[in-house]
Protein: Ribosomal protein S18 acetylase RimI-like enzyme
Organism: Pseudorhizobium tarimense
Amino acid sequence: MQASSPASNLPLVRRLEAVGFRAWPAATVIYDGSWQLRLSGGHPSKRLNCVVPLDPSDVRDMDIRLEKARKRFQSYGRPLLLRQTPLSPPMLIERLPEAGWERFETVKVMTADLAQVTLPETIDHLPMHDIGRFVDANLSVNEEDAGLKPALAEVLSTIKPPTGLFVVEEPAHKPAAVALCVQDNDLAGIMEFAVATSHRREGLGSKILASALRWARISGARSAWLQVVDNNHPALALYRKFGFSEAYEYHYWREVQA
């Protein structure tokens, strides 16, 4: 499931975008034409709070629609963000700098053929089903505010495809690494993958990733996908070691504050 040229493989981009939406569902989804407005009042994740244009030809009334989106985001207490994928209209993206927007983050979407990935015959770490425990571990590993627990639990509870919640604990039962695997038919998405700062370079990332991918393959997934910020070089090296390669990139845009 590799894409040598995202521009020439828009069906793959559309499919990965669709499974990505289902794997990380926003509380509110509104369509303005083919523009998807994703909003989640409780969780600040950019993926849950952004405008995502999904048709390269949908450019009618761009400025008016951006203004409408801005007001809707303001009603949720969120800044207006736009996520640019290969499905975004080039005319809209060209317009953004002129309208006072800036691009501020690039994320790589990567895929791997699970039939070609060498994985252990057994799963070292079995998935759990306790969302509350996973959320606590996730917030601890990522050193995030415990106040996000209800919002993160709500996101995880609304994921409809089968999920595997993976946690690696140190001997004192403190979480050291986490990963979420969402299996959507023959595609498995790796989400919320993180290793605690104090446990990096110990091989825990490889262990938990191998467990998640092994579980996905046993469960019937044929390909895996994930998203990673383009400057996270240790994660990129790990993913490439497991056979992941880039399918396409997306970018976040925001309005420049005066």
Notes: The helical segments are 10-23, 62-75, 90-98, 131-141, 149-157, 204-218, 233-241. The longest helix spans residues 204-218.
